[in-house]
Structure formats: C-alpha cells, structure tokens
Amino acid sequence: MPHDTAEPNQFRKVDVKTALQYGQASGLAPLASWVQQFVTEAMIPEAPYTGGLATTMTLGNTDGFSKALEALSNTWIEGRQPIGEREGILCEEYTFMGGVSTARARGLNITPIKADHEGMLAYGKGGLADILENWDASTGQRPHLMYTVTIGQNPTGAIMGPKRRKEIYELCVKYDIIIIEDEPYWYLQYPSAMSGTHLETRSSTGSSFLDSLLPSYLAGDYQGRVVRLDTFSKTVAPGCRLGWLTAQPTLIERIQRITESSTAGPSGFVQSLIAELILGPDARDSKNSAKSSGWNNAGWCRWLEGLRGNYERRMNTMCDILDQGRDVISTPKRLRFPSSSTIDSWDIVEKTPAYRFNRPGAGMFVWIEVLYENHPLTAHFAPADLAAALWVLLTHKPYLVLVMPGAIFGPTVQIVKESGWKFFRLSFCADEDEVISRSTTGFINGVAAFWQMRDRDEVQALIDEAHAEDIEREMAAMSPGFC
Ligand SMILES: Cc1ncc(COP(=O)(O)O)c(C=O)c1O
After folding, report:
1. Which residue out of 57, 61, 154 has the highest number of ligand 1 atoms within 8 Å of its CB and is therefore the one to mutate?
2. pLDDT of 38-62, one tens digit each?
3. What confidence category does residue 10 fall into, taking pLDDT thresholds of 50, 70 and 90?
C-alpha cells in the first residue's frame, strides 16, 4: 500500500495517509462502497427493497449486534422499572452466548425457542407460534426482537431451509418482530452435507458459488424488518474486528449515528488492508487497471469457495471418525456351552450408542448429544454428574481433548439445568486435518473408555475433580463470548 496517492476520487483512494486519519462512521469509502455493491448486486440481489438495501461497516458482528440492540431496544433495570416495561428478545434454544450477554446487559427478557436440525421451530410445542400466542405477560412485554443464526448455527450447526425461513418470517410479520440475523458462517455451507430440501436454487447472482448458498432472510424481506450481520472474522481473521451491517436505509442511518458516538468507524489500518486485498491497485490507478492484482468479486468468491472446501474436508474428517465411535461395546457376557460342544465358551458383546450427532450442513461445529441413559452406571449417578466426569476424563492422558460443554450455550438457567449437560460442541475449524484426526480419535477413545468404567469410586473421583474450584472457574471463564 502506498504512503500517499494523488487519486482525487475517494472511492478509489487506498493509502496509508488516509488510513491514519479519522474516518467516517460508515467506513473507509472504497471498502464501504465495495461492500454495498457486493451485497446488493451479488450477495442478495433478490431483496425486495425499492431503493435497495443499505450497508454500513462495523467492528464485526458482536459490535453490529450491540448497535442494532441499542437502536431497537430500551434498557430495563430490575427493581427500578415495572415488569410491564421490560422488552424481550427471542433466540434459539441453544445459541452463541456473545449475543445473549449483550441482550442480558440491557435487561432484555431472553426467550429461547425450541430448535431442531433446521434451527428455530415455527410451529409445535415451544416453537415460535406457540411462545408468541401464549405469551406470559408476567415476564415482560411480548418480544419485538429476534436474534438468530440460521446457517451453521453456533453451537448446533443447524441450517435453515427456505420453507422454515418463510414460516418464521410470516410469524414475525404477524407479531411485529424485527429479525437480527447473525451469519458469520453463511459462506461455509457444505454441499456434501446438505439434504435435498435445502438445495433450492436461488435467482442467479452471477456467481456459481453464491448461487449455491441458501438465501438470507433479507431475500424475502418485503417489510424491511431484517437486520443482517456479516463479518470478516471467519473469512479473513477474527483479529480484523471488521464486518458490516445490512438493513433498510433508515436503520442504517441510526446505526451510523450510534457509531459516531461510540466506537467511531472501524480501524483505518484494517479497512485499508482489506480494501487493498479485494480492490487492489486498480482501486487507485483507474488508468492502469490491466495491472490489477485485486481479487474483486470473482476473486473474493473463489477465496470463500476455497475456505468452504477446506472446512468441509475437516468437517468430514471429524465426522467420519465420530461415526466410528458412536457405538460402544457394553455388557460383555460369556456364554458357556455344554462339554460335548466343540466350543466351550463364547463372548457376546452388545453395542450401545454412546452419542448421536448430525453432520453439520454449514459452519464450524459438531453438536453431540451424549446418551448417558445408556451408560452402565446410569442408575448410580445423576446424568449431569456423568457428563462432568466424562468432560474431565477427556482432558486426561491419553485422550487430551477439551470439548465445550453444552451448558455454556444455554441462554437460560432452566435450559442449562434441564438439558445443557447432554451436549458437547466440537470445533473442526482451527486446526489442520492431522490434529483434528488425533483429537477426534482421542474423543471417541475417551468415550469408549468411559463406557467401560464399572468402578463407581473411579467415576466419583472424576466428578470431584470437575467440581474442584479451579475447573469450575475455568469453565465459567470460557462462557462469555467464547466462540
Ligand atoms: C454466531 C456468532 N456471532 C458472532 C460471533 C463473533 O463475531 P465477530 O468476531 O464478528 O464479532 C461469533 C463468533 O464465534 C459467532 O459464532
């Protein structure tokens, strides 16, 4: 990147001198205008907005969500304001706690909605319609906001197809709810893991990669009630602290006012690096575009497709090994045969499923439900204690794996207590295939060894270790915003 350029057009000017100056809340002009063009012409061209979607740069999705909440909700303080003034937000049954913590800090009433492999349920017990129709006003106002991660949901890996999306959107129309769609994993949709129902083609975006992705809520947002969050955290690096927010223009204007009086625009250094990467030297040298080394839309999509391919391979590496470890040998029995028989004894082994999981259609995580009811000592320990024991055992030699306990992703105490202990979240994103193979093998061996344990004292010792002060502190320290 040059120190200085004479380029008079601010939409083409990418240089260190500009990057070092105070910038606009909307973002560095060349990058912000590329984002605007990419979103409206390539990513979501079908959005039914008369004047088009509007975008503004953020410091990533955590920042985008916090600003959207500031624009769209009032804070509530327990003990100072009547419960009837308390506003609320809906979210998935298990969700990314960074979002929940932000909403909780504003005093919002967090209301989880039952979810399955496609994410939030529209209908059925605990689904969106059920919760809204039977709203319990003693807990606060009926929520007017929804926080949702629809593609490669963190932690469950759920991926929402078009039919469910339409049902949820229509319920949001009926109950006047604004959808805040947080989609860091949208680009990581894995063709090999998607079921037929998901493979509905989009209107052509001009890129076969973008055409292969499920559409955003924005694509059908005929009422302007969707706010979408995108980030460079999962496509370039989390340390960029850079992303963007897409919504109707009125809201974008409010978000920019909030940015001016809080974070100010994102770092000029980072924005100019990303601008240089995507737009390249032709961003400032319009006469010499033949020299362009910028990625532009096509290169950006190639990069995303490459990332998707790598993560898909890692996901399959992990899931192939997990498939092998699902069933563990339980209750070995020796059958004795009469002495006249040519064989005098026979070992019978029964296989029991120790866990179940769905191969994620997108994202970075595998969500595993451990079936503690099938453990040989299930009658002697509370399932939550067995879960704590297994978690500790997995950290011991020779297994040496640290899995995220499901409880960390439970938005309410009730969910944590009722079912949080059933789940572990495994991540296949941050390591090479070889490390993923090694640690997933450690996981399945650890589970198998746990199922062989018959000595109650041995299991109790693991539970005691889990309850030891330092481990509880470590687990607590992981929870806020740990991705
Ligand atoms: C669902 C979800 N939203 C937001 C984030 C954080 O995004 P950012 O780094 O852009 O703030 C994460 C990180 O793991 C996430 O999983």
Report:
1. 61
2. 999 999 999 999 888 999 999 999 9
3. confident
Q: Is residue 337 over pLDDT 80?
A: no
Full set of structural domains in the chain with CATH:
24-264 (3.40.640.10), 354-478 (3.90.1150)
Q: What is the pLDDT of residue 200?
A: 59
Task: Write the secondary structure of the chain as one string of H (helix), E (strand) and C (coil).
Answer: CCCCCCCCCCCCCCCHHHHCCCCCCCCCHHHHHHHHHHHHHHHCCCCCCCCCCEEEEECCHHHHHHHHHHHHCCCCCCCCCCHHHCCEEEEECCCCHHHHHHHHHCCCEEEEECEECCEECCCCCCCHHHHHHCCCHHHCCCCCEEEECCECCCCCCCECCHHHHHHHHHHHHHCCCEEEEECCCCCCECHHHCCHHHCCCCCCCCCHHHHCCCCCHHHHCCCCCEEEEEECCCCCCHHHCCEEEEECHHHHHHHHHHHHCCCCCCCHHHHHHHHHHHHCHHHCCHHHHHHCCCCHHHHHHHHHHHHHHHHHHHHHHHHHHHHHHCEEEEEEEEEECCCCCCCCEEEEEEEEECEEECCCCECCEEEEEECHHHCCCCCCCCHHHHHHHHHHHHHCCCCCCCCEEHHHHCCCHHHHHHCHHHEEEEECCCCCHHHHHHHHHHHHHHHHHHHHCCCHHHHHHHHHHHHCHHHHHHHHHHCCCCC
- Choose which residue among 91, 154, 229 to substitute to test ligand 1 binding: the one with the highest number of ligand atoms within 8 A of its C-beta: 154
Query: Residue 60: CB within 6 Å of ligand 1?
Result: yes
Q: How far is the CA of 62 from the centre of ligand 1 (A)?
A: 6
CA of 198 to the centre of ligand 1 (A): 24
